[in-house]
Amino acid sequence: QSWRFHKQHNAWFQRFTEPQITSEEYEQGAYVYFDYNIVHDDLQTGWCYRRKENFTFRYDALEDELRTQS
Question: Does the keyword Cell membrane apply (predicted)?
Fold first, then answer.
C-alpha cells in the first residue's frame, strides 16, 4: 500500500509520517524503505525496513508506471 519506487535510490519508499514540507516538485519528511541487509559479524542477509528522517523526496525521481518484461 502506497509504496513508490524511487529511480535514483532503486528502492521502494513509503511515508513514515506526514511530510513536514510539500511543494509541487518535492516533499520532505520521514520515510521507510526496503534495504538488503548484510550483517558482517555472522554473515546474515535479508531484506529489512530502514527509516530516513528529513528526506527530500523529489517527485521526478518516482517511477510512474510498472514495466513488464517481454
Answer: no
